[in-house]
Amino acid sequence: MADLTAIIEDTVRRERGRIVGGLLRLCGSLDAAEEAFQEAALAALRAWRDEVPANPGAWLMTAAKNSARDARRHHAIVEAKAPLLAEDDMHDTIDTLTDDYLRLVFTCCDPELSLDNAIALTLKVVAGFSTDEIARAFVTTEATVSQRILRAKQTVAALDYVPPEREELAARVDAVLGVLYAMFNEGHTARSGELMRLDLQAEALRLGRLLCDLAPREPEAYGLVAMMAFSAARAHTRVDADGAPILLADQDRTTWNRELVREGLMALARARSLGGRGAYVLQAEIAAVHVTAPAYESTDWAAIVALYDELAAVVRSPIVSLNRAVAIGMRDGAAAGLAALDGLERALAEYHLFYATRADLLERAGKDPRADLRKALSLVTNDGERQLLERRLRARDSQ
């Protein structure tokens, strides 16, 4: 039973956006689409006891469509679109907004919503993120995220959830970028379980490429694709045999995926040609400095600090300030890095990487890092990161 539950959870996680997007296109109601999807997941729990279907995603889609049709019949709702439930199938074509996942993302990112509320709603509905996963993406509390989602649902309750026309896409691009960025970050370092969720990374990158096709003059779309490609290029070198993170300094650069690195450099070149210096382009520029350095020791930390200075002027975020402090510590020494951390603890009091970073700088400065390592351990939720922190603390205790 435990194995079956794990199989269903994995299938639901991977297929949710595609199936809900298809159901929305078919029945025109987000609530009905979500309800039908949940009914299909429950049906799978019962039906797959004896045998898991060869194509679990297709099974879920069929079951969800049947559930939606039965619900409409039960409630005696007759609409012109009803025949589509029996006749229309998921499109395999990836072109404009015929991709159901991207269609759903754009539909939820309605300009009637604030940017943060649109992103929170979309991550909940499309990617199936929990409120704590969304809270981590925003570096805020679960209560705040819950309120954002509630307000978003109340705002869009009167809307028709009609996918936008091409001329309406531009007004939603910023929110879509935010959704894909949060998806990729969760895939890069998952809140719980294993260090990475490669399925989320791959899907966010795929959708980013489609977004570039839809918005070929938007430098931030190319910047985001570049940043994701650079990160994905080294994914297989980020985890050791035990599932613990391998730090950038220790990764085998000779095995990074060169095709993805080239894709990232081409996307970044396109963003530059469009004059892009927004948040995603600047983060891609930082990542490019890392992936083009032949060795960790030859990293141009001065260039990275300058880019973080520029990024901090565009995005006022304590996470940016934390990363900038790391770069300053590498350029100017641990004491300078610690000084750059001053004033950040209040904003990042629940963020384990603040304490892990400060512990590293303290150790490099010849000071005792154990209090910060213990604080980081009390906050970390990812199994891989927990292993690394425990190793660091044991090593320090044994000295």
Question: Main attributes?
Answer:
399 residues; globular; single chain; mainly alpha; 66% helix
Describe what this molecule looks like in 3D.
It is a single chain. The protein is built from 19 helices and no strands. Helix 9 (173-188) runs antiparallel to helix 10, helix 9 (173-188) runs parallel beside helix 11 and helix 10 (198-214) runs antiparallel to helix 11. Mean pLDDT is 88; it is low at 76-96. 66% of the residues lie in helices and 0% in strands. It is mostly helical.
Distance between the termini: 45 Å
Q: What is the overall silhouette?
A: globular
Please indicate the percent range of residues in DSSP E strands (runs of 2 or more): under 5%
Structural class: mainly alpha
Proportion of residues in helical segments: 55-70%
Low-confidence region ranges: 76-96
Total DSSP helices: 19
Report the strand count: 0
Radius of gyration: 23 Å
Determine the mean pLDDT.
88
Order of helices and strands: HHHHHHHHHHHHHHHHHHH
Largest sheet: none
Give a short overview.
The protein is built from 19 helices and no strands.
Strand-helix topology:
Layout: H1 2-27, H2 30-47, H3 56-74, H4 83-87, H5 100-108, H6 115-125, H7 131-138, H8 142-156, H9 173-188, H10 198-214, H11 219-233, H12 258-273, H13 279-292, H14 301-314, H15 318-332, H16 334-341, H17 352-364, H18 370-379, H19 383-397
Helix pairs in contact: 1-2, 1-3, 1-5, 2-3, 6-8, 6-9, 7-8, 9-10, 9-11, 10-11, 11-12, 11-13, 12-13, 13-14, 14-15, 15-16, 16-17, 17-18, 18-19
